[in-house]
Amino acid sequence: MTRKFIPPIGKYYSLKEKAMFTRIKLGAWTFIILCLTMIIALMIGDDSISVPVQPGFNYPNYDSSFANYGENMIRLSGKLEITHPTLTQKILLPVSLLEMDVLNCLLIITMSILVLRLLPHIHSSVLFQKDISPSIRAIGFALIIFWLLDLLRIFYFTVPEVSRLTNNQFIYQKNSFMFIPVPFWLGLTVLWIGRVYKNAFRLKQEQQLTI
Questions:
Q1: Distance spanning both ends of the chain, measured CA to CA
Q2: What's the pTM?
Q3: For the chain, what are the domain ranges?
């Protein structure tokens, strides 16, 4: 009768943690490759792009229903299909397909790179041996910066561009992130986590010096 080898508890959790970190690395590299592929395909391709729109303020059907079902209704909205987009439109317009436009792809690539840089320093065996608060804060600042860039491109390019292409009859249909700035608050939370880590790292360093 063969006995099954059972590793020590500490070694078991170390192997489990290593496997989890490996999966995170593979996921990050997968996101980087997919996003780069999408950006290249968008830049060199001649495919059309779709931008979510709704009737403009001066349009007769603004904020009106397309169809009514009792107390329920479907509002008039749709997608602006740009058949032959320019390079500027490809880069700056927020497309409606899974919200995966150039800016969002760049955000995912940046986040993946920052996570890959941070991973070697958050392993349980090396945690608090090095001050990684700058790397944590970099993630928070990146989220806030990309959120601000998204606002700028929408208000200074997308809104006037959609109005120009539709002869002022349609406007850009804003998503919920315009009113609930999730990336902004998430970035502030990550900045706070970086500050907490820095204080904890200093406290541990002081405790080691007093021993």
A1: 51
A2: 0.76
A3: 22-210
